[in-house]
Task: structure prediction
Amino acid sequence: MNFLETFRVAFEAIVSNKVRSGLTMLGVIIGVMAVILLVSIGAGAQAYITKELTGMGTNLLVITPGKTSMRGGFHPPSAGTVRKLTYDDSQALRRRAWLLTDAVPLVFGTGKLKYRNMGRDIMIIGTTPEFQRVRNLFVDTGSYISQGDVDSKSKVVVLGTKVKEELFGSENALGKVVVLSDARYRVVGVMQKKGTSLGMDIDDIVYIPVTSGQELFDTDSLFEIIASTPRAEDVDRAIAQIKDVLIKRHAHKEDFTIQTQGAMLETMNTILGVLTAVLGGIAGISLLVGGIGIMNIMLVSVRERTREIGIRKALGARNSDILAQFMIEAITLSGAGGVIGIILGVGLALVIPVFVDVLPTSVSLWSILMAFFFSAAVGIFFGVYPARKASLQDPIQALRWE
Amino acid sequence: MLELSHITKIYRMGGVDITVLSDVSLKVQPGELIAIMGPSGSGKSTIMNMLGCLDRPTSGSYRFEGREISSMTDDELASIRNVKIGFVFQTFNLLPRFSALKNVEVPLIYSGVPARLRKERAMPLLQQVGLFERMDHKPTELSGGQQQRVAIARALVNHPPLLLADEPTGNLDSRSGEEILKILIGLNQQGVTVIIVTHDQTVAARCKRIISVKDGQIIDDRGQP
Result:
């Protein structure tokens, strides 16, 4: 009996019992769909994080006060601080660590922003002019904070577009005075529109000189220094230079932590990779349950068609013909379920980001192939037992079956 | 053509051995028309299954055209059933999902005949049993007599030398039964060996040779050639 014929017989058996076949397939459909969808969401998150982190500017080094043994990852800026990072530290790095293009001092936090009768809490970043270059965030109208503003602790502020629009609408904001945590600041510039990055609305931030920021947050320390090197190959040497400069200034103690962008990326990717594998595994379990559903239905089908098996055997079907017939039926059920599941999974993976912009997805070919072969394998694995049972029926007993 | 010698068949049921056939010997020449008669439980169906290569004897030898059956593998038996033997059952045993034509084609599937040729070979047989116009009908759309004729066409599609009919008229009214019997006798006249299991005296009376079975043994064998 050739393959095409076996397939046709199996197909006819499936079609002749549409509701049951449909429900059986549904188990596999949901399983495959879940695998593809969840893996796509995981991969999408990974791709998104990678893009956002590299989009911040290349070859960034973040120096935070306090020494932690943790490699990469995030920790609070002031955790375990021995000695503070100061504005002078950042200036020393600019002067002496020649591999660095920039060493930008940062303080940040939230404060109350008021203009006329409007006001709310807002993210404030205190920094220097080089921040624009390091983070790829540039001023649109007016000017950014200048070195002069930093040196003289000027009360000037640059607004993110969202803040500007909220407070001033289409009105010109330049030269207006706003109140930031009880101090009066003059608006000197408005940033370019950037959107959201890593869940943070970049347009909902205001920038002030780092020195004014230290006063505003009542601290003489920096929360971090962002440094950058022009070339990826220089990162290791740049780290050495930073250490060299800062250790000398900090009484020969390494009481700060340098994180590279690569390490952060690696950490994030590891976390997301594990997450994706866990999600995929959970979805895989549902696919397994779908496979058990197939086995169940095939066992019912074999029992129901005992007489048919007897007739076929009397007419000359070999055991292997009967085995093939039921195997292909099981594989067709799971394979068709797999294909429908792939279509739905890919479809949803493409549609979801359109409606839910915090859930980026990335459909990968390997997840599709894996889901398909896994579903076919489920069909084979759970089809063998019922099909073998069918093929070993005694023809006489089977013919007598009512 | 067929030779059963000293066949014994014992089934084991619930730890008890039940002897269904004991020391049955039987020779069948090509072209014979035989009725096997006996009350239910006499063992006539077991003889039929044995002759049809659906069952193996517990002891004794069965030679089909000179070849020993009892030592054959399942696949070899399947092939003999497919090519050498046509089965007609009391309950017709057509596949309910398939049309008459498809049903007739089934044995050809297992002989490896390609789909296109199967149709060509199945259609003349349906014509022969007078169901050419109904070849697209499903079994449920046919009368009992018509279903049995489809079953005969199916039994003949591989042109087997032996036709085994197990109570072929048992589920039919007398007029349809008579039609079926005429077809079987006609086939015998064309040279096919026909063996009919029946407990209907009028059916048996039409056969040249009548074998009576009781309690697993042949008690009478009239009209041997």
Summary: Chain A touches chain B at residues 1-2, 4-5, 12-13, 16, 307-308, 310-321, 395-396, 399 (CB under 8 Å). Residues 261-304 of chain A form the longest helix (44 residues). The mean pLDDT of chain A is 86.
